Amino acid sequence: MKRNNNWKELFVYDKEERRGVFVLIIIILALILYHGYSPFAISSATDFTELESYITNRRYLADSSRLANRDINKDVPDKEKFNFNLFNFNPNTISKKGWQKLGLKEYQAKSIRKYIRKGGIINSPNDLRKMYCLTQSECDLLIPYVKIEQRDVVELEDKIWTKTYIPKVFHLELNTVKFDSLLAISGIGPSTAKAILDYRKRLGGYYNIKQLQEVYLFDSAKYVRLSPNFYINTDSIYPYLNLNTDDYYSLKNHPYISKKMAYNIQQYRDNNGEFSNIEQLKNIEGINDSVYLKLYWYFEL
After folding, report:
1. Cα distance between residue 91 and residue 125, in whole Å
2. What is the pLDDT of residue 88?
3. 104/128 Cα distance (integer angstroms)
4. Torsions phi, psi of 299, nearest 5?
5. What is the pairing mode between strands 153-156 and 159-162?
């Protein structure tokens, strides 16, 4: 009995709930009437033939207009479209104003001149196609007028600079040259100048220009390019190592003396007494004639 009462309660509403159900029914009926009798309702039997015909005609007219414009453009010369004033020119030498006279915009002329100033070379007419600032159509117009000479000269407005650069050659004594003097040489920056001076201090001085190849940051190409700026005066070498007084730790700090060699020198001295001449270094294990010729400059008795 209790269960039946619970079931009946599902269909019993209070005053507010009955009002809500009534409003919902009205809304549903309104939607049904609107769908059936509204003048904007679309009938499934509507004839779209006239609309489809209109759309087809518009498409046809648009296609015809596009084709006509394309044919007209074919008949217009490229020179007229781009407004170019063409003449023979060398892309490696022509100035910014020259590019603009040809018909290029200022930003295009500046971009090409910047490429040339940074060392770029246009070796053939087709190299113009590598210029990002030029379109392929513009290149097609310009290429027939490109005349590249054998000697490339870079023209900057009213100044002319040849691409062949001959750096100034200095005449500096390598064992006495100062930091600022090294910086004056083209190709030597602060790091390289410091490396040259630091290695000179560790050695005690340079006895041969070829020792520059042992300097950190100095490769063979840099040596070939920079060595003509220097000469050597061996009287400026400071032989700071003493064969009879310097111990193992002082000896091994020299770039040409290994730890084993320093140990052998000290052992030889302990076993045979003081050195009477530097040539006695040849008696030490590990020091042959070529090594001796390098060490000779840095020892004293």
Report:
1. 9
2. 87
3. 13
4. -115, 150
5. antiparallel
pLDDT score, position 213:
92
Q: What DSSP line would sit under 35-96, residue for residue?
A: HHH-TTPPPTT---HHHHHHHHHHHHHHHHHHHHHHHHHHHS-HHHHHT-----B-TTT--H
Gyration radius (Cα) of the chain, Å: 46
113 Cα distance to chain centroid = 19
Greatest alpha-carbon span in the chain: 133
Would the pTM of this model clear 0.90, i.e. be above it?
A: no
Query: Is residue 190 within 8 Å of 170, Cβ to Cβ?
Result: no
Q: Which among 254, 251, 231 has a CA at the least distance from the CA of 170?
A: 231
Burial class (CB in 10 A: 0-12, 13-18, 19+), 118: exposed
> DSSP class of residue 162?
E
pLDDT at 141 (0 to 100): 85
Instruction: For strands 299-300 and 241-242, give the pairing.
Output: parallel
Run means of pLDDT, 10 residues per run, the chain, 301 residues? 55 71 83 67 55 64 56 45 76 84 87 80 84 86 80 43 57 91 89 92 92 87 89 85 89 91 91 90 89 87 79
The angle at the Cα of 287, spanning 286 to 288, to the nearest 5 degrees, equals 110
Residue with tokens 């007028």: 145
What contacts 111, CB < 8 A, 6 or more positions away?
Answer: 131, 132, 133
Compute how many other C-beta atoms are within 10 angstroms of the C-beta atom of residue 64: 10
Q: According to the model, what pLDDT value does residue 66 have?
A: 60
Nearest to 174 by CA among 135, 134, 218, 132: 218
